[in-house]
């Protein structure tokens, strides 16, 4: 990676064979569109301590071929709608240390039609931008999920139900009201033990049969879930199905945080692939339901956002 340290200069002297550039201490005092002229060969770009004298739209004009962008320690106070215009090939965007940012337009990511990875890191909890981060992620994810759903075809296996839900009775309020109401709205069929298990049946056999007849197994994770031997049994049975069928059938949801000491090797392996986490933020909840229902209806990966 080529590293440039410059003050008030133009990025026009980058060797044409260079594809990765890192710029530190960059003060822009010239028209922005001249700054990136003739740099279409750059693929990966990192800015550190970037200081822009004015809010400019179409900021990245001239480098529309980049696929990975990192913006770190920015002085920007506002991220307006047109900043990322033209970055149609961008697949990964990381924004770090937004200590001065006061406004983030909820549609600022709309032009990034190829974006696959979005990460906001090290944002001060008192910063006003926190109001916008879930909105921004939600709108971007909706567009991504629509594209994903149109491209995915589920295997032609016929199942009786869509999902078997594993949860601890302590979390039954959320499962029976929030979760089931949402699944019913999207016509996603579910099996839950308190409603669908017949009294007097052998519990281990019933769990195994329920997991086998559903397309997916959902784990509603919480400290009480991980403290329950029955819940852990359901988790291990679902994991065995991954091994036997050779496909990812587990949909893990972190409903309530649990201490790291409760993280087993099996669960760590499950969570390392993909998972969703419940939040109290309204826009975060909308994003959660979008991703969950798309997964259960159309398949694909949960594609978690690092927020």
From TrEMBL:
Record flagged with keyword Transmembrane: yes
Superkingdom, taxonomy of origin: Eukaryota
Classification via PROSITE patterns: TIR
Keyword check for Cytoplasm: no
Keyword annotations of the record: Membrane, Signal, Transmembrane, Transmembrane helix
GO molecular function term, any single one: signaling receptor activity
Single GO biological process annotation from the record: signal transduction
InterPro entries registered for this protein in UniProt: LRR_dom_sf, TIR_dom, Toll_tir_struct_dom_sf
Membrane topology, as annotated: Single-pass membrane protein
Subcellular location field: Membrane
Assigned GO CC terms: plasma membrane
Chief place of localization: membrane
Record domain TIR: where: 159-296
PANTHER family: MSTPROX-RELATED (PTHR24365:SF530), TOLL-LIKE RECEPTOR (PTHR24365)
The name this protein goes by in its record: TIR domain-containing protein
């Amino acid at each position: 990676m080529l590293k440039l340290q410059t003050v008030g200069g133009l990025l026009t002297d980058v060797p044409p064979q260079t594809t990765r550039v890192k710029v530190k201490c960059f003060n822009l005092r010239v028209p922005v569109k001249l700054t990136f002229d003739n740099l279409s060969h750059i693929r990966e770009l990192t800015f550190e301590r970037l200081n822009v004298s004015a809010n400019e739209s179409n900021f990245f004009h001239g480098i529309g071929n980049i696929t990975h962008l990192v913006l770190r320690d920015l002085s920007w106070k506002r991220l307006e709608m047109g900043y990322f215009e033209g970055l149609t090939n961008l697949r990964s965007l990381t924004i770090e240390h937004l200590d001065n940012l006061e406004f983030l337009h909820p549609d600022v990511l709309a032009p990034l039609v190829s974006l696959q990875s979005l990460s906001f890191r090290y944002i001060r909890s008192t910063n006003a931008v926190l109001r916008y981060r879930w909105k921004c992620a939600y709108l971007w994810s909706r567009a991504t999920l629509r594209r994903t759903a149109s491209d995915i075809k589920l295997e032609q296996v016929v199942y009786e139900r869509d999902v078997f839900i594993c949860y601890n009775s302590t979390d039954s309020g959320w499962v029976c009201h929030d979760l089931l109401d949402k699944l019913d709205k999207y016509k996603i069929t579910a099996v839950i033990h308190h409603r669908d298990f017949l009294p007097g049946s052998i519990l281990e056999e019933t769990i195994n049969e329920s997991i086998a007849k559903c397309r997916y197994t959902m784990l509603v994770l919480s400290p009480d879930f991980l403290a329950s031997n029955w819940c852990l049994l359901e988790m291990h049975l679902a994991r065995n199905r991954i091994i036997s069928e050779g496909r990812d059938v587990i949909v893990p949801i972190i409903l309530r945080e649990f201490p790291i000491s409760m993280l087993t090797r099996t669960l760590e392996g499950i969570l390392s692939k993909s998972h969703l986490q419940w939040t109290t933020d309204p826009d975060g909840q909308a994003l959660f339901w979008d991703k969950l229902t798309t997964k259960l209806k159309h398949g694909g990966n949960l594609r978690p956002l690092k927020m």
